[in-house]
Amino acid sequence: MKYTIVIGNKNYSSWSMRPWLVLDHFGLEYDEVMVPLDMPETRTTILSFSPSGRVPVLVDGGFAVWDSLSIIEYLAEKHPDLGIWPSDPHDRARARSLAAEMHGGFTGLRVACPMNLKAVKKFKARGGSAAARDVARFEGLISDRVARSGGPFLFGEWSAVDAMYAPMTARLTGYSWPMEPATQRYVEAVQSEASYKKWRAAALEERWVHPRSDRA
User: Fold this and answer.
1) Do 28 and 46 fall into the same domain?
2) Could you tell me if residue 15 is left (phi over 0), alpha (psi between -120 and 50 degrees) or otherwise beta?
């Protein structure tokens, strides 16, 4: 079985990164179709894979699944033996709650600090109190979860919820946000994982420029 994953630019597309990490980390076979974002043909190209007109899209045979979290859930159902979510029912429910919180929240930081894996920017208080609240919430959940699980990931072993939070770690390092020691250790663990490093290496080779994401 080989999937097709349709993604945006690796440097900029945080939503594409999340299910791609799950595919790659768990050794699932896939072909990759990369559609550069914000180009005249972008939407038309994506519409040929999904009626949403957005990336990411997973194609399984002739069946398309779109939205990062939906793709991850689809993969978890198709491959229940892989441990894509934690095995303990309470841990699994909490991991899904945290994944959904990321999926629908943290908008202050997202707007203030767009995904840009090439960025190494001097810290400044971007996004005002909304972004600061998002970072504080992230640090709080990291501290709580790693203390409970023993780390290095949110539920001990790497799982889908760590894929959901991986772009957050990129934002914190790329925009030089100050971090508590527990957060720093978690960020380093996520960014040392092989699939994250593989995605980032490819992102650094891209030549597209997105004006909003590349602003100072």
Assistant:
1) yes
2) alpha
Exposure class string for 185-198: b at 16+ Cβ within 10 A, else e: ebbebbeebebbee
190 shares its domain with 94: yes
d(CA 102, CA 69): 10
Which pLDDT tens digits describe the chain residue by residue (216 residues)? 799 999 999 999 999 999 999 999 999 999 999 999 988 999 999 999 999 999 999 999 999 999 999 999 999 999 999 999 999 999 999 999 999 999 999 999 999 999 999 988 766 766 688 999 999 999 999 999 999 999 999 999 999 999 999 999 999 999 999 999 999 999 999 999 999 999 999 999 998 776 555 444
The two tokens of residue 125 are 């208080």
* Residues 98, 26 share a domain: no
Domain co-membership, 186 together with 135:
yes
**Structural domain count of the chain:** 2
Host H or E run for residue 46: helix 42-47
Q: How far apart are CA 73 and CA 141, in angstroms?
A: 22
> Would you state the structure tokens that stand for residue 188, as one six-digit string?
């380093």
CB 74 within 8 A of CB 21: no
